[in-house]
Specification:
Helices cover about 85% and strands about 0% of the residues. By secondary structure, it is mainly alpha-helical. The longest helix has about 100 residues, at about 1-100.
Length: about 120
């Protein structure tokens, strides 16, 4: 008899546990459904808005690059090239001046130096 009572109590406890697990499963499914609805209704528009913002930033970056950065790079490269060309010419003039013995290029309008002898 004592064993039969323990068996009956165990069966009742298992039945109650099954009911609790079933109720929790139903609540979990409802929460998942609610989460899917929130994702569809709220997160998807936010992602589309973020995508639109990225597209706008790309366009702005392209515009600034084409109208500001590229011309500045071109001007800088031309001025750097011109400066380097002038430095090269100055170096050539200095070397030519050293060959004539003065160490300096002849000034405009000056007479060539005669060597003492």
């Amino acid at each position: 008899m004592w064993l039969a009572s323990v068996r009956d109590v165990a069966i009742v406890l298992l039945a109650l546990e099954t009911l609790v697990i079933g109720a929790l499963l139903a609540i979990t499914l409802l929460q998942i459904r609610s989460l899917v609805r929130v994702l569809r209704d709220e997160v998807l528009p936010m992602l589309q808005s973020a995508n639109d913002t990225v597209t706008t930033v790309k366009g702005t970056t392209r515009f600034v690059s084409d109208t500001v950065v590229s011309p500045i790079i071109k001007v800088t490269s031309v001025s750097t090239g011109t400066l380097q060309a002038l430095r090269s010419l100055a170096l050539i003039v200095r070397r030519v001046g050293r060959r004539d013995g003065t160490g300096m290029p002849p000034a405009e309008g000056s007479q060539p130096r005669e060597e003492e002898g």
